[in-house]
Amino acid sequence: MNDLRQPHEAEIIERVQETPSIYTLRLRFTDPAVHAAYRFAPGQFNMLYLYGVGEVPISIVSDPEDEHIVDHTIRAVGRVTDAMARLQVGERLGVRGPYGRGWPVEQAKGRDVVIVTGGLGCAPVVSVINYVLKRRDRYGKLTIMQGVKHADDLIWREQYEAWSQLPNTQVLLSASEGGPLWPWHVGHVPVLFDKAALDVANSTVMMCGPEGMMIAAGKGLLEQGIPAEDIYLSMERNMQCAVGKCGHCQMGGQFVCKDGPVFSWPEIVARLGIKGV
Amino acid sequence: MSSAVFLPHADSQRLFDLLHGAGYQTLAPQARNGAIQFAPLASAQGLPWGQHDEQRPGHYRLEQDHSPRAFAWANGPQALKPLLFAPQETLWQVERDAGGQMRFAAVAPPQQARAVIGVRPCDLAALKIHDAHFLGGARDGHYAARRQGLLLVAVNCSHPAETCFCAATGDGPAAAEHSGYDLLLDELDEGFILRAGSETGRALLGQLGLPAASAAQAQQAERQQQDARDIQQRGLPKDVSQGLQGQMDHPRWQQVAERCLACGNCTSVCPTCFCHSEREQPALDGVSSEHLREWDSCFTSGHSYLHGHLVRESGAQRYRQWLMHKLAWWPEQFGRIGCVGCGRCISWCPVGIDITAEAAALCQGEQA
Prior knowledge:
Chain A is an alpha/beta fold. Chain A has helices at 32-37, 79-84, 123-134, 157-164, 193-196, 211-224, 256-259, 265-268, and strands at residues 8-17, 22-29, 45-50, 54-59, 70-75, 92-99, 112-118, 142-150, 169-177, 185-186, 203-208, 231-234, 250-251, 254-255, 262-264.
């Protein structure tokens, strides 16, 4: 892409309503040359543009080697994402990207992959879960640990159940508040660590979710014996340019849009848990 | 150091004519609406002859006397920032047809050859930072286009304001060699000592055929530079970036927030602040829309908006973001602090908050 800040037109090929407020848009660039040239890595994001309304940063959840489609799972939380929720198949968006540094899928080759997420299902880690599952022979054991506030908050429930049936894959779920139909654990994410039987010397951890959850989980994992440099987090901040110019995404000296959004624990730990940073 | 020549005040217009002859539009400081401002100027008569600025925290006034000088003031609210990083500009536009198809088109800034006369050494230092920010990494096309055609005629500062502390940051009052100017002036009562700092500057200067500056004149300029250094009272604590680490919970943040209006004046006048927001402006015709960017400030609530909440809710958090970014976190990004000692944020703050006083109190680490 020539000008990093100018979108290209893309068409909605499919639209999936995941929950009342979460939807997935499957996109294809209308210019075949743009579509053919487009490459991304799991954990990177695009800026999606709605005509006359504005842009939002949305992580890419599809597989980087799927040549047909680019998926974005979006939660309607603001002016742009609310309006975008009304788009139907065949309608068009602007897309520019991909931006940022994604998950360390190369460094993790040959190692166990540990996914830790919290809150309402976390799109950035879904991309890496699917990535590992499609390339099962390149990675060791896959452990997926997800914490939600309340049992009712879990989305993609069937998907978690399907993943738990796969060989060499462990799915552990916990809810801070359980419920009558909650078959999994009760408590915050770290209650799962003892159940996971992690190979601490041979695991790469990838975390995504609310900052407080990631801090608690990171500390718990360090206590388990996982080296700090093997723990990665995906951060979120306001992003408008996506190329490290507009200044909104700064966390201390880091620009989340270009230095992240994925950081290793040592790179970002000094900025975590300080209100207002 | 290239050889210095002398241009008497009476011949000042020759500098303007030289630049016009080389195809440049000239911008120069002028006394406008009670402040020194850069604006297009074709005649040396329009320079702020005899103007002085009186600056202190929360205070800026111009006064005129019979001084024979055109640059007997420190600075105005603008640096070079608005000339290169426009306060508002269109990045691209889009048209949408009845079938919903969109056509995106780039909007390029006009290509201009502009010469700015009267650039201060602190402004050159700030420009270097903005060059690193906007041209490094993903190159900003709009900034690059304006930057390309810019010729810089710097003037060493002989009259620092009470708010100035460029000597402490190492960015003035005299411009260092290789600090980016094409021509550099020292103003004396009878005229200017000129020297070139670039090939373009050397070629231009050669055309004027001026006599060499005398040893006495050179000595006078040197003494003046030293005086401008010595007169400055303000400064930043030693190792300020280090000193601020670990002060995130200091009670001073709350104390300054009780005075701070969160108006964003400091970020507007700061020559290194680069934050900007992007905004959509759909046209009334219903078929086209412009994507704009405009200066933003870390003192606004929208600056830290994140899917439905604010990362920085309080004034204390916003002031802390601004000061910590400028003095503690900037070195991580650009290898130096983001303050060039121009003192603008002190003068133009409506309640006179002084970054040097705040930094000093914070670095003490105790309740101030």
